[in-house]
Write a structure and sequence with these properties.
single chain; about 300 residues; alpha/beta; serine acetyltransferase, domain 1
Length: about 300
Amino acid sequence: MDDSPARWAQKLIESYRDDGGVNTSNEPGLPSKPEIASLCLQIMQLLFPGYHDIGSIGKSELSGLTLDRVKSLTEDLHRAFRAALSVKDDPAAAATTTKLFDELPAIRAMLQTDVEAAYEGDPAARTRDEIILSYPFLEAIAIQRVAHFLYRHDLPLVPRMMTEWAHSQTGIDIHPGASIGSHFFIDHGTGVVIGETCRIGAHVKLYHGVTLGARSFAKDDSGRIKKGGKRHPDVEDGVTIYPNATVLGGETVIGRNSTVGGNVFLMHSVPPNSLVYNEEAQVRVVNKATKGDSVDYSI
């Protein structure tokens, strides 16, 4: 009889012992990725009823369905929070759940400003329903706004897992620590990165590929990266940042009502009402067959 499966299993068990990376229930166990994915989907169903369901919801069903969903999500949140806090029963888990449900109506109101910003800011948007159903930024910012609330209440691990779930779904990476004002819109969205200590004002619009990141990382005497500290930029009210721009540094501030052009690389502050753009570049166009008849275009 082939004993290969037994040998393979034993080698894996030895690696579990030696290298870690195992989530077991008697330690008391951490939240799992499928568990957090389920939480995120339930949250989206409560924030936007009928948009994340199979088919629409009848008005007569809405009250009872909402109550059932609140009860189900409450139980799942308690379980995830207890696991994140590494306790089997902790009043802090129940208290955080209570605070979150008290806050959800306000989060919904904030998200409506994001929908409005997208509708007013994108000529391709025909209806607000289209934005809720098909714009990836809304899913990313909805989960981030909930995760940010949990992050501010010092709940470990779960907020980060939530925003990474949204990242995997949308291609938009917003850390739960980032503070983001009302009427926020990310057009297209793919490849946007917003770091933990960013502070973003109201009526800010970003395009795809924008990075609001850290300039450098301080290290201790052992050469290890120091945790914490203000590492990411501030973006004031009314700013627009065009595709693939990179803005770095914890001391960098983009002043209100400024515009940062595409492909700009910026590591210093700019005053309000600034226009930031790269110097003129030349684009050369040649005939592919002859390599001649070139034309220069200024951009």
